[in-house]
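Example record for the data management plan.
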Amino acid sequence: VDFCLAYTRAGSPWYCGDPRCGVVSAVAQTVELLARCRAKGVPVVFTRVVYGEDGLDSELIFLKKVPKLISWTEDNPLTHICPEVLPVHGEEVMIKKHPGAFFGTPLLSYFNARRIDTVLLVGCSTSGCIRATALEGMQHGFRVVIPRECVGDRTQAVHDANLLDCHAKICDVLPKSAVMDYLDGLPPAAKKAKKKA
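Corresponding structural encoding:
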């Protein structure tokens, strides 16, 4: 969810570089997890927050609360996905305009069509889009798991408080190592048969 350059590029007004809880560290921790998911054939979905250049999105309540986000348009390089975790061919990238990844996107249909029942949730920010997505996922009946090291926020206190609350009420917050062990127990991804000409 929303691993974009706005949070990882030094000098950005949204930069989250705290090594204890920041997004820079979360992106680095996610590289290995993402590779393992792909090796096991686990579907991977990305989200980006992008608003229209015409300014009409400014009437959204979320943008009234956080008006600086109106600059998150397609031509703003800070909205682009971090190069360390770029999607590969065939992976979905869904555009959203609100904190939760389910609201206003085809994510629920995507999961249901594939009979997915468990969501490994990584991204940022812990207190915003991660918490909102975890809550939506739980309400839709998914078991949501957050690998603790693979989410980030601006401050340690906010990050820790939200993970504590999410684990108590919404989802499972686990060490990345436990999630990697779970993935290791899955069979390898099936090889796709080559089409004959």
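Summary line stored alongside the record: Residues 36 and 88 are 14 Å apart (CA to CA).
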